[in-house]
Design goal:
Helix 14 crosses helix 16 and helix 17 runs antiparallel to helix 18. This protein is an alpha+beta fold and 600 residues long. The chain is globular, with a radius of gyration of 25 Å. Helix content is 34%, strand content 20%. The strands form eight sheets. A six-stranded mixed β-sheet has the order 4-3-2-1-5-6. Strand 5, helix 5 and strand 6 form a beta-alpha-beta unit. The chain folds into three domains: 146 residues, Creatinase/prolidase N-terminal domain (Creatine Amidinohydrolase, Chain A, domain 1, 3-Layer(aba) Sandwich); 139 residues, Creatinase/prolidase N-terminal domain (Creatine Amidinohydrolase, Chain A, domain 1), CATH 3.40.350; 289 residues, Creatine Amidinohydrolase (Alpha-Beta Complex). 50% of the residues are buried.
């Protein structure tokens, strides 16, 4: 199996490792040290060598932060991880605090006057540092950049080696555009002499390459300097350079070792250089300013073009979703038959689904570790089963499975909630409310300029009417054989100034979670379609096209709670699932699918 159920940390990490970090801090004259979750590339999912917060505290979630003072420490997490962090972190060492409400800035405001708190400039965005510096100043404390990261010093020989996965060409039959054309197009629109590109997903997209340095994501860790004429310098560990790579990149791209990066930035003295303060760490800004470059703060120039998929990418991702939908349908058939008479445990469900995806013969990886959550674990949105936590689904319970695959032609992410045995009336009612929100997003028409934050409430209206809600966003962007979480588009309560544009892929995943009892989430990926004229209207409107094709458990739907329009929409979606997935599965599965997709 690709996914394991081992735990990479334990609550003893804090008691063992924090004293070592404090010793290293003391040698540098520091009273505290900031430990962000992000690494040098601002990654969400980290190679083991860069998972500093996990090594320091034991917490392995995909978002968080830590502060280690000489006499106290804290770990900060959001609502997705409030239960997980208490299982993983020794609360005798770390105080558990909210990442969103107050967060690290509020904690720094309690620092002692005169305290010197260190930070690694390679790990923090300049915008985040500005907020943290202001908070420390209010307490009379100071934030100080360190030349050597004391946590890394404490980690020492125990620290895993940096990943060196081979970097390989990503063929144009999947990418849809030559790298040279991308570089010329992006370079000509920089509005600067050069741009520093540090986001691994942007580098993979711009150069039409893929790697394996980041778990579950085919990304190479590298940096690049793109010039206005489309030529570039790509800084990549020589151990990752495959035989075919130099010829693939061509003469306009020079391959250089990472050690040459600082000198390359110094050579930009007197030049205007675009750098993204949300994607690149403060170190790049500090280094460029020290070199005498004119720093232009702006969005990574690859971000929007990467998010707006071209026709080849969309055709590929549609095929990837049909292939993946057939694998998921086989799994749902298994749950509806064997899984009802002999309910699986979480590990069995995860392994079975992975086996169906593996049987496609073209699976490159999972797009993230499968969330197979039975019983009360379903109320933990980012739960991952382990040997210790594994539970068997009980009759009369819900099994929530959030999963995805990485294929050369696309990345998938889908959640289905399945009744094991007979669901309660409350489960059916709450699932139907979630479904109403999912359908509201899926059928939406919206004008150009509409952002995800403008439509998020539509997914919650039915829940709100019953005094219910969920604490995560409704949708995130997704790449094409890239990251399963990709910006800048998203659907959430948080303000977002980036409009939904044709070719953008976004998830549609409202949910409901009852602590200790069950969780519900229904997730499809949707692609934004070009605006079309609506009959009788005077403005063209965009719409979504569902990419995900798999049945939704009809046993959890109360037709009486749906409008006639919602019933017709639900039935039309299932008719499409049957039409496109039915021919791809075995007769036995097809027969079940016909029942699963029957009109309400």
């Amino acid at each position: 199996m690709r996914q394991t159920f081992d735990e990479s940390t334990d609550p003893g990490f804090g008691p063992r490792h924090v004293p070592l970090i404090r010793e290293a801090m003391a040698r540098q004259g520091l009273d505290g040290f900031l430990v962000p979750h992000e690494d040098e590339h601002q990654n969400e999912y980290l190679p083991a060598a860069n998972d500093r917060l996990a090594w320091a505290s034991g917490f392995t979630g995909s978002a968080g932060a830590g502060v280690i003072m000489s006499d106290r420490a804290a770990v900060f997490v959001d609502g997705r991880y409030t239960l997980q962090v208490r299982e993983q972190v020794d609360q005798g060492v770390f105080e558990i605090r909210d990442l969103v409400e107050g967060g690290v800035p509020a904690y720094l405001e309690t620092a002692s006057k005169g305290a010197v708190i260190g930070y690694d400039a390679r790990l923090h965005s300049p915008a985040a540092l500005d907020v943290l510096k202001a908070a420390a100043a209010r307490a009379g404390a100071t934030l100080k950049p360190v030349a050597a990261n004391p946590l890394d010093e404490a980690w020492g020989q125990q620290r895993p080696a940096q990943p060196q996965a081979p970097v390989v060409p990503h063929p144009v039959r999947y990418a849809g555009e030559e790298s040279s054309a991308k570089r010329a197009r992006i370079g000509s629109g920089l509005g600067a002499d050069a741009a520093v590109i540090t986001a691994p997903s942007s580098i993979a997209w711009l150069f039409n390459i893929r790697g394996g340095d980041v778990i579950r994501t085919p990304l190479p860790l590298a940096q690049a300097v793109l010039r206005a004429d489309g030529s570039a310098r790509l800084f990549l560990d020589p151990a990752k350079v495959t035989e075919e790579l130099p010829a693939w990149l061509g003469n306009e791209v020079s391959l250089e070792a990472p050690e040459a990066l600082e000198g390359a930035l110094a050579e930009l003295s007197g030049k205007s250089v675009l750098v993204d303060p949300a994607q690149s760490s403060a170190w790049y800004f500090d280094t460029l300013v020290a070199a005498g470059a004119k720093v232009v703060r702006g969005m990574d120039p690859c971000t929007l073009p990467r998010a707006c998929k071209n026709g080849v990418e969309l055709d590929g991702t549609r095929e990837a979703h049909r292939r993946d939908g057939a694998a998921l349908t086989r799994f749902l058939h298994w749950l509806a038959t064997e899984g009802q008479t002999s309910p699986p445990d979480e590990k069995e469900a995860v392994a079975k689904l992975e086996a169906f995806r593996e049987a496609t013969g073209v699976l490159k990886d999972l797009s993230f570790d499968t969330i197979g959550a039975a019983n009360g674990h379903g109320a933990l949105p980012h739960y991952r089963p382990t040997e210790r936590s594994n539970e068997r689904a009980a009759l009369g319970s819900l099994l929530l499975v959030d999963s995805g695959g990485q294929y050369l032609d696309g990345t998938t992410d889908v959640t289905r909630t399945v009744a094991i045995g007979e669901p309660t009336a409350e489960m059916v009612q709450r699932n139907t409310l979630v479904l109403k929100g999912h359908l509201a997003i899926a059928r939406l028409r919206f004008p150009a300029g509409t952002t995800g934050s403008a439509i998020d409430a539509l997914a919650r209206m039915a829940l709100w009417a019953h005094g219910l809600d969920y604490d995560h966003g409704t949708g995130h962007g997704v790449g094409v054989y890239l990251g399963v979480h990709e910006g800048p588009q998203r659907i959430s309560k948080a303000p977002n100034t980036v409009a939904l544009q044709p070719g953008m892929i976004v998830s549609n995943e409202p949910g409901y979670y009852k602590d200790g009892e069950y969780g519900i989430r229904i997730e499809n990926l949707e692609v934004v379609m070009p605006a079309e004229t609506v009959n009788g209207g005077d403005r063209p409107m965009h719409r979504f096209e569902a990419l995900t094709l798999a049945p939704i458990d009809r046993r959890l739907v109360d037709k009486a709670l749906l409008t006639a329009e919602e019933v017709a929409q639900f039935d039309a979606y299932h008719a499409r699932v049957l039409k496109e997935i039915g021919p791809r599965v075995e007769p036995e599965v097809r027969a079940w699918l016909e029942e699963a997709c029957a009109p309400l």
